[in-house]
């Protein structure tokens, strides 16, 4: 089997797993998770083989592993679809395969496989606990266990399709499949109204972006006649697109296409102003949050921008827009994150902020830095999310122990001191948090964030540089806040006292991801770091070769390095300092209502967009047009038919046919009968009289006929 | 007008007059008696027509049997001696009209026949009408069959009349 | 000397009178009287036609004899019926004997 055929087969096991679970193994929990994890393992294996081959193939950028088929006949050509693995695709495939496998394995433990069935568990609501034979309250297994694995298998299929595709069409197909799965999975516990609303919100918000992206894809097709990357990135094609002007904002065709595709990313990667769905998406189970918001779905937005970078980077106006939105989102989300109390919401805003970093990096042209941060962020953010899920599980143990169900196991102010109760979770979460903050040298986050900052600095975008630095400081601050409140100090509630560590299916993925969170950074150490003359950064050389012209590494700058150190260490220190003695939420001085309520953007959208839309649908279309106008016309038809019917009945049927013909003939017959009957009176003289009269009449008639005539 | 014609007219008047009395008289016994007069007149008519046997038979059978039978019937079917109430139906004037029309119609049909006014042939005095009648009645190539059938008819009528008028109270039929 | 027409007129008149009697009289026996008159009129007709036709043809008289027999039997049966009806229904008014009606 050639490597190209293997690439075709990488997305296959998860979709097979989806169909198998849905059709056959739904009732059997063990079989379902085995099928799903097995499929993830197969895809991982295929991805690893491809990756190893990819990194050992020289000049992969110029001659990527590619294979395509003719699919739709279009006049005298074909629309082709196919697969392609170039260097960037290889590294993305690497992290997607690892994170997907770890999350699948984690889900087995997260949904309490092996635990008893819940006392009052209902499909559609989160499991509430069961009473085992000793009378203890323990965690109960998720009722919709197999359904979850079916959905995340479909999700994995969508992501793998997106990564291996070589054209915008199958990329968009994978994009949309993931959108669907995000709806299904955010609304996994569909019995909760908040989850339902969050699912609809996620789908609708990303849809707004998707519409523009589809327009962009259509524009690409009509401008170039093809959707394959190879055809679009031909130098002549790019040159044409860059020079053809469009009437919108004075952009060139390339710029407009880039802008429209980027709007899809704004939706999918939760950038301002379409970021509102991501915090609400925390309603889904934590593996879903890890998958969607760390490893795969939001990364897909950044992936697409990186993929289309040769096209998007042609127009400086578009690049400015991208940089602005990325930077703004980074600082905006970071400010909100410092005021959140829910452990998952902090991570959600953190994700939005880090994606802003990546988008900003692309906006200033730091292609490799953005790709590097994408990969490292996937690892440590997935680690953080899975760690938070482990923490929540531990807290739920405590809630079941004390029996007080009003305590929110996700509120950080109910936690504390979990470092002693859940050590593995603590150490891995710490590693992830340090990576996110950019702890120097040891963690992957440092290397990737540093590259972004140096890229912004060396391209001269000082506004971007400073803003991103402030955002990095806030990142470190809220991360340490989170770690302090959750793990350090003493338990603040009874529930925190009774938390305990989670099973190996949950802690093993944490450990694996922690390894990557530390180690992956070292593959991207810049060449002239600290003035030393090291080997060229493998990551930069490898991924940079995807572009036709290898981008230059940003030169090492002491200012940037110093800034990174200061913001990272300073943020961590101040975060620990401010929160080590905080016991209740009231003591937290940063609980500013504006930040806590996310700048009231949701309320604004609701007022300006959603309520008018509801009014339009409910009142205008439904009540006035549908019920009033259309149903009114139909009722008129009904009334008209009724009227005609009653007219015919009352003016024709009854008087003419019933009375005149029907009753009339009866009356006539009766009249004749009544009046002819007395002829037969039984009196023979009368009979004789009648017969004589008739005889005389006939005689006369005969005489007349025979004699006279 | 010969004497024969005058005699004929008188007989005719007697017949018709007594017939009218038959149909109009109140008292039914009188009606039966008037019938006897009519029948007698008819017998005289037969005699004028040289049908002497028939004249005698008319007197014997009709007057001697049938009229007497009528008188018996009238006696047996009245609650009182005297008939009371009108004896004619209420629409008798229509019946007059009908009768007149019938009469008129008959005459008018007859008078278009060319033999209407012919006169009688002479009756040879040696002609044995009765003997001829007798021979005709019993001769096989004449009218013996109708004669026999008529006697069977009389028998049937006899039996039938006895059966119909039989009174179970006065005699035991079944025994 | 006496034309045939006189006999025929007499028989026609007698017949009409008998018809009138049949149609008009209430008593059933009186109706039978009327019938007798009509039969006699027919007989007069027959005999006169015999006399004024071929005398050697006895058919006329034979027919008249048969009519005698028939008349006699008819009267007998008819009066027997009237008597039987009188015994049942105690009436001989023809109008009251109307059971054979609708």
Give descriptors for this structure.
heterotrimer; A: 709 residues; mainly alpha; two-stranded antiparallel sheet; 4 strands; C: 102 residues; Helix Hairpins; 3 helices
Largest sheet of chain A: 2 strands, antiparallel
Overall shape of chain C: it is elongated
Q: Could you describe the largest sheet of chain C, including whether it forms a barrel?
A: none
Form type of chain A = elongated
Rg of chain A is 38 Å
Helix content of chain A: 55-70%
Count of helices of chain C?
3
Number of domains of chain A: 2
Low-confidence stretches of chain A: none
Which structural category do the helix and sheet elements of chain C fall into? mainly alpha
Q: Oligomer, anyone?
A: heterotrimer
CATH topology of chain C: Helix Hairpins
Which segments of chain C are poorly predicted (pLDDT under 50) over 5 or more consecutive residues? none
Number of strands of chain C: 0
Mean pLDDT of chain C: 90
Largest interface: B-C, 91 and 71 residues
Q: Rg of chain C, please?
A: 17 Å
How far is the first residue's CA from the last residue's CA of chain C?
Answer: 55 Å
SSE run of chain C:
HHH
Structural account:
The complex is a heterotrimer of chains A (709), B (175) and C (102). Chain A is 70% helix and 3% strand. By secondary structure, chain A is mainly α. In chain A, helix 3 runs parallel beside helix 5 (145-164). By secondary structure, chain B is mainly α. Among the domains of chain B are: 1-83, Four Helix Bundle (Hemerythrin (Met), subunit A), CATH 1.20.120.1200; 128-166. Chain B has helices at residues 3-24, 28-48, 52-76, 92-111, 129-138, 144-164. Chain C is mainly α. Helices cover 75% and strands 0% of the residues of chain C. Chain C has helices at residues 4-24, 28-52, 59-89. The A-B interface holds A 685, 689, 692-693, 696, 699 and B 89, 91, 94-95, 98, 101-102, 105.
